[in-house]
Amino acid sequence: MTTTLIIGGGSGMGRALAAALLTRGESVVIAGRDADRLKRAAVALPDGDLRAHTVDLADEETIVELYDHAGPVDHVVTTAVDVRDAYLPVAALDPARVHAAFDAKVVGPLLLAKYAQGRVAESLTITAGFNAHRPAPGGAVIAAANGAVEALVRALAVELAPIRVNAVAPGWVDTDLWDRLAGDERDTRLAAMAARLPVGRVGRAEDLADAFIAVSRNGFTTGSVVHIDGGQRLV
Ligand SMILES: NC(=O)c1ccc[n+]([C@@H]2O[C@H](COP(=O)([O-])OP(=O)(O)OC[C@H]3O[C@@H](n4cnc5c(N)ncnc54)[C@H](OP(=O)(O)O)[C@@H]3O)[C@@H](O)[C@H]2O)c1
């Protein structure tokens, strides 16, 4: 049976991916820092072969522990992002929070790659984001991290072969992330973006789940960045 390890699987796009794979009858391991978040996700996900394990992508030892717990897997997908105090004008940035953002999006995925040989059979998919291409003021840290992810998957695709390594780059997607980013303004901001986008709506977590499945399963795709953003880079 195909097994997918999803870091970030306790919420948002990662949880939607877990739901889609369990519905297909596949094996899933969800991982993240917060054990309670993982438990809540596990209760709500469809019945199936599901395991959950904590990991902090900022901590190399926990990455090795996670791989040991998961055993051999076919695919690894990471949707992890730590945005706490990362969306600020550069003049207000705390370097510790900048490092935390890069740990979740760039350094952690590099460490997932470091231990992938012999543990991951087919693919590693890392989540980037549209703002590497369409930045807004206050978004420098995550824009830089997303740009780094794009360079990273090209480099890893040649170094980790035959494991295929790709990135999915979302636009605005209605997930738990927005509760933390926008608070009470969440619905207003998402509706305003929906009105601007060529597709007339923001993304759903399920749109991204479909993309992670397509990218990770396509045996002729490696070193690619696939944009799933409703046209957000164009407007
Ligand atoms: N939603 C959007 O509009 C949007 C737009 C562009 C790009 N993206 C990208 O899409 C990806 C998924 O976003 P989402 O909306 O699904 O976010 P989300 O719901 O906030 O999920 C992020 C997940 O990452 C986990 N995480 C954070 N730091 C971690 C760490 N150091 N180690 C392990 N797990 C960690 C979190 O769990 P714990 O807190 O339990 O660790 C959480 O489950 C992110 O990479 C984000 O940058 C999102």
TrEMBL record:
GO terms for molecular function: oxidoreductase activity. It holds the Pfam family adh_short_C2. Keywords: Oxidoreductase. The keyword Oxidoreductase applies. InterPro entries: NAD(P)-bd_dom_sf, SDR_DHRS6-like, SDR_fam. It comes from the Bacteria. SUPFAM superfamilies: NAD(P)-binding Rossmann-fold domains (SSF51735). The keyword Oxidoreductase applies. PANTHER family: DIHYDROANTICAPSIN 7-DEHYDROGENASE. Belongs to the short-chain dehydrogenases/reductases (SDR) family. This is NAD(P)-dependent dehydrogenase (Short-subunit alcohol dehydrogenase family). It comes from Phytomonospora endophytica. The lineage of its organism: Bacteria, Bacillati, Actinomycetota, Actinomycetes, Micromonosporales.
